[in-house]
Amino acid sequence: MPADSSLSTPGRGCGPLLQRQTETRPLRQRLFELLRASGASSRSDLARELAVSPASVTAITSELIANGLVAEVEGVPRDASRGRPPVALTVRPDAFVIAGIKLSDDAHSAVILNFAGEMIAEATTTSAAYRMTIAETLNETEEVLEAALAVAGLRRGDLAGVGLGLPGVIDHAAGIALWSPLLTERGVALGAMLAERLGLPVAIDNDANLLTLAELWFGAGREMSDFVVVTIENGVGMGMVLQNQLFRGGHGLGMELGHTKVQRDGALCRCGRRGCLEAYVADYALVREAQTALDWNRDTAESARHLLDRLFAEAKAGNQAARSIFRRAGRTLAVGLSNVIQLFDPHLVILSGSQMRFDYLYAQDVLSEVASLTLDTGRPTPRVEINAWGDMVWARGAAALALARLTEQLLGENRG
Amino acid sequence: MPADSSLSTPGRGCGPLLQRQTETRPLRQRLFELLRASGASSRSDLARELAVSPASVTAITSELIANGLVAEVEGVPRDASRGRPPVALTVRPDAFVIAGIKLSDDAHSAVILNFAGEMIAEATTTSAAYRMTIAETLNETEEVLEAALAVAGLRRGDLAGVGLGLPGVIDHAAGIALWSPLLTERGVALGAMLAERLGLPVAIDNDANLLTLAELWFGAGREMSDFVVVTIENGVGMGMVLQNQLFRGGHGLGMELGHTKVQRDGALCRCGRRGCLEAYVADYALVREAQTALDWNRDTAESARHLLDRLFAEAKAGNQAARSIFRRAGRTLAVGLSNVIQLFDPHLVILSGSQMRFDYLYAQDVLSEVASLTLDTGRPTPRVEINAWGDMVWARGAAALALARLTEQLLGENRG
């Protein structure tokens, strides 16, 4: 049976159903998340914003205060000359502490956040191997977490939960890494293994989804109901938010934009196939071309990051081969972005990942190319934003995952 | 603020949110649609299937019976030897009559359905022009509708609503054809114009969405929560159902699979760009190659359909050039399907449209090509089904659109 999307627009097949979808979360959770997003709000502001009665807000906030999740603070007076300032509410930052960890092929990062989503500490460690065994993965994950805890002056037992992100096809619901370029094995029950190792609740996900969550919780997507995130680093990832919710594909395993084909019999991808988008724009694709363009010594153990930075400097200095590498990557990225826009028609496209330090990839001619490849049918052109959060954004997304799970447990059990 | 998807699984970012989404339609509408899908059900079966109390079902069905939408019929006895058969409920087929119309570049079709979604009559007319003015469009739409009404022995006033589908970028919510290959003008308020001409409520949509609705209401998608429909005719269309709801993209204007790029600087598309999927697989793409492969006389006004049928016969008879045309179309379609699977990871892909009479497009080697282009990451391979409903499926989808709008009006106003 077809299901309808909304209480207010019950039409199945009539109207842009997903667009009109109304809020279905419990009121207490909506109130709580509104409060966290706003920093501090008065009860009357919350009631107005949620379009519910002040009495409902008072009942819910009393319970949240009693549970230690929310506190009263002195609000900012609207008019300094008139009496005492109104009482505002805020999420209690000290109620819980959570951690987020992102694994990648050369370095791992971890952050510690408080319950208000504010950063307490961060740490980065280098990885011993490009592909890790399960034992190595658990060891290195623990190591970067301990490093962040040390910075924060906290112990592991202080944490209420951990979120972990890594590239690949991750079954978030089951906590299984079906395939990851970082792991030597397939079908690893990484969530359960890490939970056992750390003695803490653990949620895992694909790293592009984490970055999308970070945008949804803390970033440019905070005010948007539908947006797409495209990440370019060692691979090309994609995350999508529909109606304020992360979309993970029909089977919940994520969207493989990096392996959509942009050229038949094209460049060889590390997946073994040809013509994948990431075979033109990911780090490894640029590295193999850089070796031709630059005076590269194969006996030197130069890191991919360093080689690409050198390539970028050469391009800026006028090296035509170096420029040609970035230009092809940009033009091919334009094909991928145009395809995404044709299919999903998002309001916003966020480009992210470490390659965003190479401005060739989002230069005006690349964005013009996207527009020229996209059917002109009167639909609005989506905004394209470049994420410049730096490397810690991934780990913050992982922390958002842990925070989401914790909030769901706290507010979902005894529903208001 | 991020919105949660469900009352039962309030986790934002935790779990495959759209997958776990629960039912949010009013109970009376869910009950009604379950009844229509099942044909006839007892009150106790309805209560069990909807997981609600028998008392709720009795209250709602009493109201639906009083309103003339539902009737009691004699049910099938479970055990012939034991007493009188149970009373079953059914949607009253005669409660309303609606029409669905599909416009295309060479022929138009219309169907009349009863309130139970059963076909009463159908008709087809030929089109005078490939591209029509608004006046021609309204005239030809009226003509095919009148033809179907004549077959049914009904008058226009007997209809409760009309659904209309045509190719192009259609703003369904606003009733505006932003761009259609059939129309000489852009931004046409076709919904309102046709409603005024016919004196009836009219809903319009992109034809691929109609076909997706037909699958959702009457076809292979009836039992599926997530599926994709790809249509190949004069163009390439796509429709997608997520969580039993039609997805129309971020702006509600549909998904332009046909204009995603499969080859940089590739074949010229009728949109004016190069390398679009439809420039390799749509009718016009095959027609222009057929003119080279066949002994084609440019002075003969041979229809595209006839030319392609001749091409297909030649291919079957061993003409290498003809086979090469279908083979390239099939291989390129495989790229498009593989990209769709990488991005959306659907449970089912339905191939539809008049080109499905050419079995080269879904031959085993095409499906093998799809598999070989798709990343092997342990995710389940989607089922691929070929729709063999014939030409009337489009108009039935248009009728489903009208039926959906009518049901929404009847059951959405005074909510149970």
What descriptors fit this protein?
globular, homodimer, disordered N terminus, WH-like_DNA-bd_sf (chains A, B), ROK family protein (chains A, B), ROK (chains A, B), ATPase_NBD (chains A, B), 416 residues, 5-stranded mixed β-sheet, Arc Repressor Mutant, subunit A, Nucleotidyltransferase, domain 5, alpha/beta
Work out the helix count of chain A: 13
Please estimate the helix content of chain A.
25-40%
What is the radius of gyration of chain A?
23 Å
Strand numbers in spatial order across the main sheet of chain A: 6-5-4-7-10
Strand content of chain A: 15-25%
Biggest protein-protein interface? A-B, 98 and 97 residues
CATH architect. name of the largest domain in chain A: 2-Layer Sandwich
Number of domains of chain A: 3
Task: Describe this entry's structure for a reader.
The structure is a homodimer of 416-residue chains. Chain A has 416 residues and is an alpha/beta fold. Chain A is 39% helix and 19% strand.
Please give the structural blueprint.
The structure is a homodimer of 416-residue chains.
Chain A: H1 17-20, H2 27-38, E1 41-42, H3 43-50, H4 54-66, E2 70-74, E3 87-91, E4 97-103, E5 107-114, E6 119-126, H5 134-152, E7 159-166, E8 169-171, E9 176-179, H6 190-198, E10 202-206, H7 207-218, E11 227-232, E12 236-242, E13 245-247, H8 278-281, H9 283-293, H10 304-316, H11 320-344, E14 348-352, H12 364-373, E15 383-386, H13 392-412
Helix pairs in contact in A: 2-4, 3-4, 5-6, 7-13, 9-10, 9-11, 10-11, 11-12
